[in-house]
Protein: Ribonuclease M5
Organism: Allocoprobacillus halotolerans
Amino acid sequence: MYNICGEKNEKKIKEVIVVEGKTDTAMIQKLFDADTIETHGLALTKETLDLIEEVHKTRGIIILTDPDYPGMKIRNMIMKRIPDVKQAFVDKKDAIGKKKLGIAEAREEAIVQALENVVSFSKERQSITWEEFISLDIIGDKQKRLAIYELFHLGYGNAKTLFKRLNMAAITKADIIEKLKTYNHH
């Protein structure tokens, strides 16, 4: 990420990125010219939520929390307030450090990829029906489910969560079939 003169190539991110702590902020700011709001882990206060909601109105918000249970809980708390918030996900396998799992421990490319593949969620319509979802045989096939999570950068979860996120990201059955063709299914 350096140009010919050896200066850091800063990509400016318009949205403000919500992270869990100082080390996450340091990691993001090493990679991008970006502002962050820290939740201090699960200690997410009403004031911080108000700030996130306010900033969302003008600049937009991207949630980039750790790929673990507390990270999911923080994500859900923010989504309750801002259903159409943008989300970036780093896979668990890319975020494992020596002692803990998290954004600060993640591979730099994984963070860059997560932010460059940000998905905008909107709840307007159903892009895939439950019947279509079932017909894709995702429920009984964990490998296929994980592949779809990865291909569409939707984080991680069970089949029901995947169904919800596919709809939130307006992904259709056709989109899934198309993407799965490029993915060699083991």
About this structure: Strands lie at 16-19, 36-38, 61-63, 86-87, 119-120. The first strand starts at residue 16 and ends at 19.
